[in-house]
Amino acid sequence: RIEDPRAVHLLEDARSKIQTMAFIHSRLYRSRRFDRIDMKAHIKELVNYLQHLLSAGKKVTSHLEVSPVMLPLNQALPCALVINELVSNAYKHAFSSRKPGTLEIIMEKTAGDTAQIIVRDDGIGVQKDFDIQKAETLGLKLVRNLVEKQLRGSLQMSRRGCTEFIVRFPIEHMEDSNAENHDR
């Protein structure tokens, strides 16, 4: 019933963040393990939800390439919120025109037990002087804080023919004996 576009945007943004947290907790409760979240299944569910919520009138094709990556809950939640923000930003900004486009979300476990997330789009691109480390938007500030402070990782942006955000962080491991207790 709200007609103010800014208020609608804020409410939709809050709803997607709340839904992201709900997806993580739903995954946790459906899991046999309570110490790890299967991010592959979660990311598919999250991206489908965001596509449904944000793609009205936009012809965006999503490609997911997600390897099985198990994260502890204290990393799964900030990781999911980072993906939520980056995918939401792509829908809202990169595909603001009505042109068809492609959004790619890649998550994999790399050497040294590091998780890598790539969110890539072929939308309108970002300004040449855009610096991810100095971005002042609430969403990108949130992404930086989640990646650097909670995940203790790094965030990069590339413009090689498309806009690409790359997140890397070390995967935390629980004690084996502690993990066995949660597998009941």
Structure report:
There is one protein chain. This protein is of the alpha+beta class and 184 residues long. It has five helices and seven strands; from the N terminus they run H-E-H-E-E-H-E-E-H-E-E-H. The strands form two sheets. Strands 2-4-5-7-6 form a five-stranded mixed β-sheet. The chain has a two-stranded antiparallel sheet with strand order 1-3. It is globular and about 45 Å long. The C terminus is likely disordered.
Can you count the helices? 5
Structural class: alpha+beta
Range of strand content = 15-25%
Low-confidence stretches are 176-184
What oligomerization state is this entry in? single chain
C-alpha geometry: globular
List its salient traits.
alpha+beta, 5 helices, five-stranded mixed β-sheet, disordered C terminus, globular, two-stranded antiparallel ribbon, 184 residues
